[in-house]
Design goal:
CATH architecture of the largest domain in chain B: 3-Layer(bba) Sandwich
Shape of chain A: rod-shaped
Strand order of the largest sheet of chain A: 8-12-13-17-16-15-14
CATH architecture of the largest domain in chain A: 2-Layer Sandwich
Oligomer: heterodimer
CATH topology of the largest domain in chain B: Phenylalanyl-tRNA Synthetase, Chain B, domain 3
CATH superfamily of the largest domain in chain A: Bira Bifunctional Protein, Domain 2
Number of helices of chain A: 18
Radius of gyration of chain B: 33 Å
Low-confidence stretches of chain A: none
Structural class of chain B: alpha+beta
Number of strands of chain B: 27
CATH class of the largest domain in chain A: Alpha Beta
Distance between the termini of chain A: 58 Å
CATH superfamily of the largest domain in chain B: Phenylalanyl-trna Synthetase, Chain B, domain 3
Number of helices of chain B: 15
Largest sheet of chain A: 7 strands, mixed
């Protein structure tokens, strides 16, 4: 394959220099000194003389008769140039053009052409891209870093937990961040003198909120003071509605569960909530005064401690933990209560993520719920810290998260864990 | 938490156990070894079991769990009387008392009883509010004993850990325990005291014992115990916890007659309470198939007394409110490892809240626009939300925060995102960040006097960045949500004049957009210009709870 050289290409577009010269001379004779200024004059002169098209008399260029004719006839070389692209040249013709360095073997041409960096719309439109050589890149060098928009890793964990709950048939719930002590504590049989209510554990706000309807409030009072009709002895302390009206930052998502209990639940049903909760603590590497909890509950006939274990096992397995163990625990509104540990193959140790239990009769009776309700909750940031291998909660939540980290973390980590 | 000596605990457990075995037994019962350094062991005890906060109490639970028959505690009559004067009604109305004789104190068990007393004060007795315990060497006291309330300046005695006589007021001001627990007597005209027949003061509860009558030593053989407080049920339980532990030390419990103006009590009441178990309920809750006999055996291993086929809860247990608590104990004795998890199929359909779905769509759009999502805190400070921002608004303030860097709930996301930029200045620019999250505003009309609003906030920071860059992001957001909006130029001190606008949707102001004023940037120590917007999305997202 032969291709036009840069010279050949130029002549194809602008005409051969010798032709251009004779055309010019046909218009008018030129002084040699003026003609010298023409483009490619030396080449034009060489070939025009060779073809006997011009003569020089007293420093003036003039056309010969043959030259006159050449302005009207087709010029062989020009015809040949037109044939190059079509690949129709005979061997003889190749020789003619090669001799004038107007064509070359394709490979050779490439070597010679000017190197360019960028392909431009101009090059594409004019077809000149055919004639240019693209500068070589070092394609083996990794690309320069760019940063996409990305989700926050804590949100990836939250999405994963949502996904698991929905896969298991749970409906999502939410609730307000500021709560009355009623919904955060009293509604679920936490006694009014429980240590968790103390100011070093709970953020109290000024002012009082509203209590729900009287009927529910009375049921709560009865169950707190004397156990209501549940067979319980209750907490045996006078229940004070003013304490229940106290506003606070919710300390757990169970407040959301109890708002749902009061609104009414379907039987059977499964619900979940993932939300921010607050504890009046000093910030350190494992604690922040705010963090997230995920909590799910199931209300259905026939649920028991073994089914609670079964659901937790299934849940753990969905976050990639197969080996689990349980320990009896204590919680004022669930009995029995269980802590569930999962064995992380990667970390080679047991990690405690889940707290769970069966709601106490005193914690269900005021809502007229007559089937067992099992529930479990987990600390979202704790899971995130394990998954993203972070030592401090501040690297997972808050303005303290490192931007570089957010830009560069492994987006598949949640799936690979 | 029980902090004790491992060796001491081992001598009290009547079977040789290794640390590993001890750990397993505790784990089965629901407790964990928190730390073990040399001989010092710390065991995590859940708040329902104050009876395990003494080494003897824990050993008692382990011994019965392993093999021992539960012990039945009984009290003989002591003939000692305590007269309660009605003057205590206005300050600390109740007391219950006991005597324990024939004790052999040594350094170890003396320390043990003091520690147990303090642990009970802090936990079950709610920092001495519900109950305060006093233990006295009986030989120094001349019964009968009187419990009455008198004017603080008339109370004069040398308190423990002091060598000076003080009056009631001085004790509250100067004595360490007075400063710690003084608020329990705050505003009371009369302070309670125990005083004997020779007019010697035993103590001023719930603060401090007398150095003369109230100090138990290794020479003490017999003790007088009183518990005072507001709630007789808690007092009786507290007294049982202390008296049974002293009985485990080898002492004999004697009852005391507590004479109120209107009634007489013979305390302590160590009678175990009969509990009924319905085996159907047991198996229903635990998912097991155990017989009544098995259940009774399990309960015996948990310390319950069995007499003639009847089951009695031990007198030191404070946590049994309902049959469910007994079932829980059966479960523990059955062994947590013996429960086979079961996964019942319960057909329900799952689903996300509409709010979650909408937020996710908007997040996807912002990520598509090249913005990095951030996740900031709701707890903030007025310095950051207001002073540094040159901004003011109604807000909800904290009142009792332990973490001193916070004092309010955020009303705006802008400063929180500026804080992210502040921490990121050594990283590559441009920096484009966003967050969709809640701000909390006061609202008298709602049940919780507040409203959570979900806002979206986006910032761009670069060496050169201008208003148009951020307004095109905002436009893209609204175009993709098919929301029509208007920008109205506004003077806002947070932004450069002429480069900020309020965002108006349906004639309502819903947000702000602009190029941050250099003063704000300076306040946040930012070295590059920042543009941004914040918009309330409540148009799309419902306020939770309403």
């Amino acid at each position: 394959m032969y291709k036009l050289t840069e010279e050949g290409l130029k002549y194809l577009k602008k005409g051969l220099p010798e032709i251009n010269l004779v055309k010019k001379l046909k218009e008018k004779e030129l002084k040699f000194t003026d003609a010298k200024k023409l483009e490619n004059f030396n080449i034009a002169l060489l070939w025009a003389k060779k073809n006997n098209w011009i003569k020089i008399e007293k420093g003036i260029l003039k056309l010969t008769e043959k030259g006159e004719r050449a302005t009207k006839e087709k010029y062989k070389i020009e015809e040949l140039l037109n044939k190059v692209e079509k690949n129709e040249l005979s061997e003889e013709e190749v020789k003619i053009l090669s001799k004038r360095n107007l064509i070359k073997k394709e490979k050779e041409i490439r070597m010679e052409r000017k190197e360019i960096l960028n392909l431009t719309p101009e090059l594409l439109k004019t077809g000149l891209w055919r004639e240019v050589k693209f500068k070589k890149y070092n394609v083996e060098v990794p690309g320069k870093k760019i940063y996409p928009g990305k989700k926050h890793p804590l949100n990836l964990i939250i999405e994963k937990i949502r996904e698991i709950f929905v896969e298991m048939g749970f409906e999502e719930l939410n609730g307000p961040l500021i709560e009355t002590a009623f919904w955060d504590m009293d509604s679920m049989f936490i006694p009014q003198d429980h240590p968790a209510r103390e100011i070093q554990d709970t953020f109290y706000l000024s002012g009082k909120g509203d209590l729900p309807d009287k009927e529910l409030v009375n049921k709560i009072r009865e169950v707190q003071e004397k156990g209501g009709k549940t067979g319980s002895i209750g907490w045996k302390i006078k229940w004070n509605p003013e304490i229940a009206r106290q506003l606070l930052l919710r300390t757990h998502t169970t407040a959301v569960t109890y708002r749902k209990f009061a609104k009414g639940i379907k039987i059977p049903s499964k619900y979940f909530c993932i939300g921010r909760v607050f504890r009046n603590e000093e910030a350190d590497s494992t604690h922040l005064p705010e963090f997230h909890q995920a909590e799910g509950f199931i209300a259905a006939e026939g649920l028991n401690l073994r089914s609670l274990m079964g659901f937790i096992k299934e849940f753990y397995s969905k976050i990639g933990i197969e080996k689990i163990k349980f320990k009896f625990a204590y919680n004022p509104y669930t009995e029995p209560s269980l802590e569930a540990f999962g064995y992380s193959e990667k970390m080679k140790r047991w990690i405690e993520l889940i707290n769970s239990g069966i709601f106490r009769p005193e914690a269900l009776a005021p809502y007229n719920i007559k089937v067992p309700v099992i529930a479990w909750g987990l600390a979202v940031e704790r899971l995130a810290m394990f998954v993203f291998e972070k030592k401090s909660i501040k690297e997972i939540l808050g303005h303290t998260c490192d931007l570089k980290d957010l830009r560069e973390y492994d987006i598949l980590k949640v799936e690979k864990w | 938490m029980l902090n004790t000596s491992l060796e001491y605990l081992k001598t009290l457990i009547k079977k040789k156990v290794s640390v590993k075995e001890l750990e397993d037994i505790l784990f089965n019962l629901g407790f964990e070894i928190d730390s073990l350094k040399g001989d010092e062991i710390a065991i995590e005890i859940t708040p329902d079991r104050p009876d395990l906060l003494s080494t003897h109490g824990l050993a008692r639970a382990i011994n019965v769990f392993l093999f021992e028959k539960p012990k039945k505690y009984e009290a003989k009559k002591s003939e000692i009387k305590v007269f309660v004067d009605e003057s205590v009604n206005s300050v600390r109305p109740y007391t219950v008392c006991s005597v324990v004789r024939n004790l052999k104190f040594d350094e170890q068990n003396l320390k043990e009883i003091v520690n147990f007393q303090e642990k009970l004060h802090e936990t079950f007795a709610r920092k001495r509010k519900k109950a305060a315990i006093g233990v006295y060497p009986l030989e120094k006291i001349t019964p009968p004993i009187y419990y009455k309330a008198v004017e603080p300046q008339k109370i004069k005695f040398v308190p423990l850990d002091s060598d000076k006589e003080m009056n009631g007021n001085e004790i509250l001001k100067k004595h360490e325990k007075g400063r710690k627990y003084g608020e329990l007597l705050l505003g009371k005209k009369l302070y309670p005291i125990f005083i004997d027949s020779k007019n010697e003061i035993l103590s001023m509860p719930p603060i401090i014992n007398s150095a003369k009558l109230g100090k138990v030593t290794t020479k003490t053989k017999d003790v007088f115990i009183e518990c005072s407080g507001e709630d007789i049920f808690t007092l009786l339980k507290t007294l049982n916890l202390i008296a049974t532990t002293l009985a485990d030390f080898g002492g004999n419990i004697y009852s005391v007659e507590v004479i109120y103006p209107d009634k007489k009590l013979e305390t302590p009441d160590l009678k175990p309470e009969e509990v009924k178990i319905n085996i159907l309920n047991v198996n229903k809750i635990l998912g097991t198939n155990i017989s009544k006999e098995e259940a009774i055996n399990f309960l015996e291993r948990m310390g319950y007394l069995i007499e003639g086929g009847k089951v009695f809860a031990p007198c030191y247990r404070t946590d049994i409110l309902h049959e469910i608590d007994i079932i829980d104990d059966i479960g523990r004795a059955y062994g947590v490892k013996n429960f086979k998890p079961d996964f019942p199929l319960i057909a329900t359909t799952g689903g996300l809240l509409k709010e979650t779905k909408i937020k996710n769509r908007i997040r996807e759009l912002m990520i598509g626009l090249g913005f990095q999502e951030v996740f900031t805190l709701i707890l903030s400070s007025s310095e950051e939300q207001f002073s540094k921002m040159r901004f003011e608004s109604k807000a909800i303030f904290l009142q009792n925060q332990i973490e001193k860097s916070i004092n309010m709930l955020r009303v705006s996301l802008l400063p929180e995102l500026l804080k992210v930029l502040k921490n990121s200045q050594h990283y590559r620019f441009p920096q484009k960040i966003f967050e969709i999250a809640e701000v909390i505003l006061p609202d008298e009309k709602t049940e919780t006097k507040s409203i959570d609003k979900t806002n979206i906030c986006a910032l761009i920071s670069n060496s050169v960045v201008n208003y148009e860059e951020i307004s095109s992001v905002l436009d893209s957001l609204f175009s993709n949500l098919h929301i029509s909006y208007k920008l109205k130029e506004v003077r806002d001190k947070r932004f450069i004049n002429g480069r900020s606008a309020k965002i108006v949707i349906d004639k309502e102001e819903k947000g702000i957009i602009g190029e941050f004023c250099p003063k704000v940037l300076e306040n946040f120590n930012l070295e590059n210009p920042v543009v941004g917007f914040e918009v309330d999305l409540s148009l799309l997202l419902k306020h939770p709870g309403n």
